[in-house]
Give the backbone structure.
Amino acid sequence: MAFLEIENLHKQFGGLTAVSNFNLNVEKGDFISLLGSSGCGKTTALRMVAGFERPSAGTIRLAGKEITNSPPNQRNIGMVFQSYALFPNMTVADNIGFGLKIRKQAGTTSQKRVQELLELVKLPDKGKSYPYQLSGGQQQRIALVRALAIEPQVLLLDEPLSALDAKIRVDLRAEIRRIQQQLNMTTIYVTHDQEEALSLSDRIVVMNKGVIEQVGTPFAIYNYPTSAFTASFVGQLNVLPVQVVDGINGRCSLHNQPLTVSQPIQAANQTTVSLALRPEELRLGHQDGENNLTGTVESADFLGAIVRVRLQISNASLMADLFNERQMTVPKTGETITVSFPSHACWILETT
């Protein structure tokens, strides 16, 4: 039995299905991210776990107890919102201790708990400050430990970093992961940011149009997507229209340039299928024994760690992310170049 069990969860708003057939088991101490674009149902799913939305159907169990229709204050779940939602007229210490006060845990025990949490987020001297005196990153840290003050069984975070600057987001997500691991806190994190989900999570739940597309580790989600949506949504992806030449042996071609994939192609010879290939798998120059494609450089953009080259191969476009080296020669627009990649780096997308 999983620590948190979500079975066949469904949410209908009038004629709109927001979440359908949502099934997820979360073990104690897991960090799970719900990843998807706006309107995919990830926040609605989170709010049903929190108790802010009542499911149209389905069951939620926490530590063996059914909580499907329990009010939020009877679930022992902490929640962190995108907007921080700190009380502006209260000090930082009073904000953190608010949940303890509601639970009538005031006094010395509460003060000790508040100070422990301030030290946990490395803000030990901010207890007497007010929210307006803190930076955005500091306010979000306070919102995090306020949710942790009541020692919840599960922590829910709804896009908590989206309002912050890029560098602060990177620093704070590392802080969130450190705290989560230190406390062994079961956590569900909603985000549309792929990098956040990949860097933070034990497992990622990819959602699309109210349903789960795939559940897996970040490595599996990125390298072994099970649907065309997951493959295209997570990370950059080339999708090339190739013609099957010898499906049993994984042979195909792109405008008469031969290619091989590592698995048999489940399609008839002479039909067109979609070959998927990550841009970072490509290398500059011809390599014997590997797939090689020759095309014309459309553009070459220097992005610091990588040089992103776009090639035109007849009517197909190919993007290659080449690792920056100080002595490399950046391809020029209009130049004809060859790029190579191994057969195991590409795969055929299944049609749905």
Remarks:
- The first strand starts at residue 4 and ends at 13.
- The radius of gyration is 25 Å.
- The CA atoms of residues 255 and 314 lie 7 Å apart.
